[in-house]
Amino acid sequence: MLGVYLHIPFCSSICNYCNFNRGLFDAALKARYVDALDAEIRATPLAGRAADTIFFGGGTPSLLEPEEIGRLIGACRDSFTIGDDCEITLETNPETSSLARMERFRAAGVNRISFGVQSFREPELKRLGRIHTADRAIAGVQEARQAGFDNVSLDLMMWLPQQSRENWCENVESLVAVGPEHASLYLLELYPNAPLKEEMARSGWSLAPDDDAAEMYLWSLERLDRAGYRQYEISNVARPGRESRHNLKYWKDGEWAGFGCGAHATVGGVRSRNVASTEEYVTRIAAGEPAVAERRMLTAQERLEDALFTGLRLTEGLDLDAIGHRYGVDVWSRFGPSLAPFADAGLLLREGDRIRLTRDGMLLANEIMGVFV
Ligand code: SF4
């Protein structure tokens, strides 16, 4: 089954740490963009393929009108074979949500809401340049519930400037109190010229020491275990059965189509990427030209590396037998000698045909995965 990703590149304001493909909301451009997306989906060479997830990511997809989201879901339904149980996720900024909009998004066909909350503490939200308050985030989840959504996810960011371990624990306790079905806990990553970096230097804000960050990560996963969540990926936890089916396609060597500016796709061993610029994307589609900027067949080595990298992010780990059959390699013979020191250090477990990271190993995932390249 394919996943279908739709990129919506508009935001009400730009957060000072954000490195995604996004720009400020412009109503006229948005209208042209929705037309272009609709046309790109309807012209897909993958027409007729079965798809079981649709994911509106951004940017801030909830800035689109619910009727526009409904139109794009309709285009997907007309182009792909989509069953009634399709997971349809809308990334949402709490500032753009209200009970009425949630009801209309639900009527449009959305059945999963992913709120970008980032923090439940006002000083942290302000430092990140977020436009919503913690109360608005909590109200947003309540509105989603009232509108009938029973599959809600929250994103939180940890290791923020000036964030102590206690501050992070407060955030996790708030998350548990709000009670989403799914949560993603991301480490703040500062890209080289992020405005937040300059602001940190100007304001004298610092990050907690690395050891504290490690403790914050491990403590939060234990707390979420106790609250009935199951960690299924390095940064993701869910109530049983509420894992993100769409994101699992990225981590389980799956296939996905991508529409919109900068969207990536991987189908049949071919990876493609659309032009990043919103204006160029709209102009190309309006002229009947393809939006693809790059398309290439992945090499066998790249496909194997991808499968190893992404699969090891999952708590269930890698099925060495399955990968061996799929790619014609004996993974343990090839990488075992390099992985053995990590296993000896308790960072990696080998259980029958599977290898998986321990939680301590997840803290050093990049170093361990470096073995594969
Ligand atoms: S709302 Fe999300 S996509 Fe938009 S600027 Fe902020 S972090 Fe980036």
Key phrases:
alpha/beta, nine-stranded mixed beta sheet, 15 helices, binds iron/sulfur cluster
Main beta-sheet annotation: 9 strands, mixed
The radius of gyration over CA amounts to 21 Å
State the separation between the terminal residues, measured CA to CA. Answer: 28 Å
The spatial strand order of the largest sheet comes to 9-10-8-7-6-5-4-1-11
Assess the beta-strand content as a share of residues. 15-25%
What does this molecule look like?
It is a single chain. Helices cover 43% and strands 24% of the residues. The chain has helices at 27-42, 66-79, 99-108, 122-128, 134-146, 165-178, 195-203, 210-226, 245-251, 278-286, 300-311, 320-327, 331-344, 359-363, 365-369; strands at 2-8, 10-11, 23-24, 50-58, 81-92, 112-118, 152-158, 182-187, 230-233, 236-238, 255-259, 264-267, 270-274, 292-297, 318-319, 348-351, 354-357. A nine-stranded mixed beta sheet has the order 9-10-8-7-6-5-4-1-11, sandwiched between helices. A three-stranded antiparallel beta sheet has the order 12-13-14, with no helix packed on it. Strands 15-17-16 form a three-stranded antiparallel beta sheet. Strand 5 (81-92), helix 3 (99-108) and strand 6 form a beta-alpha-beta unit. The model has no long low-confidence stretch (mean pLDDT 96). It binds iron/sulfur cluster. Iron/sulfur cluster (SF4) binds next to loops.
